[in-house]
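stage 2 :: seqdesign
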C-alpha cells in the first residue's frame, strides 16, 4: 500500500454554522490510493434539537424519532470513525465540498478532546469536476454533487442528502471523472488556452 489512503466523507448537519449546529449523520468509505474500496461505515449522531434547523430536517431526512432509537453520542461516533481508518498510512479526507465536513469534524474532535485522525490535505470532487470541464471543453452550471453526478449519468437531477449515499455517489462520480482526464485532442469549440504569463521585469 502507498503511504496514504482516502476517506470519502459526507456529514449531514443541523445547519451550516459549526458554532450553532450539530452533526447529525456521518458516512465514511475508505479507499486505497487507487480508489479501491476497503471499508464503509455510517453513524446517526445524537444532536441537540435547538441545533437542527427546519431547513436541514427537510433536506437531510433527519427524523427525531428514528434518531432517538438509532443515534449514538458524537464522542462514540468520532472514536469509532477514527478506529475505522487504516493505521499504517496517512488518511486524506475526500468528498464533495469536503472542507465543510472537515470544519465540522475538526470542531467536534477538538470539543471532545480526541486527536484528529486525518491528514491535513483534502481531495475535493468539485475541483476534479472543474478540471474535467476544462479538459473536455464543457461548460458547467454549478460545482455541486448533483451537477457532477448528473453530468456523469450517475444521477437523475435529484440527489438524496443522506450521508453514506452521498459519500458513495461522490466516490463513483470521482472515479468517473478521473477515468476521463486522459490526454486528448481539444475540440474545435473548446475554450482557447490561457495566455502565458508575461516574463518578470528585468532588475534595474
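stage 2 :: out
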Amino acid at each position: 500500500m502507498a503511504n496514504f489512503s482516502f476517506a470519502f466523507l459526507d456529514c449531514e448537519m443541523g445547519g451550516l454554522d459549526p458554532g450553532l449546529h450539530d452533526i447529525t449523520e456521518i458516512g465514511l468509505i475508505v479507499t486505497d490510493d487507487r480508489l479501491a474500496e476497503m471499508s464503509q461505515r455510517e453513524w446517526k449522531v445524537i444532536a441537540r434539537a435547538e441545533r437542527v434547523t427546519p431547513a436541514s430536517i427537510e433536506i437531510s431526512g433527519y427524523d427525531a424519532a428514528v434518531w432517538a432509537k438509532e443515534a449514538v453520542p458524537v464522542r462514540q461516533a468520532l472514536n469509532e470513525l477514527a478506529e475505522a481508518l487504516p493505521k499504517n498510512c496517512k488518511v486524506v479526507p475526500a468528498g464533495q465540498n469536503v472542507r465543510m465536513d472537515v470544519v465540522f469534524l475538526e470542531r467536534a474532535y477538538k470539543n471532545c478532546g480526541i486527536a484528529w485522525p486525518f491528514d491535513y490535505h483534502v481531495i475535493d470532487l468539485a475541483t476534479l469536476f472543474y478540471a474535467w470541464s476544462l479538459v473536455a471543453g464543457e461548460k458547467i452550471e454549478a460545482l455541486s454533487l448533483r451537477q457532477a453526478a448528473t453530468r456523469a449519468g450517475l444521477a437523475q437531477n435529484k440527489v438524496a442528502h443522506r450521508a453514506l449515499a452521498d459519500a458513495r455517489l461522490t466516490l463513483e462520480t470521482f472515479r468517473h471523472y478521473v477515468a476521463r482526464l486522459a490526454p486528448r485532442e481539444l475540440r474545435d469549440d473548446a475554450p482557447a488556452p490561457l495566455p502565458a504569463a508575461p516574463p518578470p521585469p528585468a532588475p534595474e
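stage 3 :: structure notes
- Strands lie at 4-13, 23-31, 37-44, 90-95, 123-124.
- Residues 130 and 143 are 7 Å apart (CA to CA).
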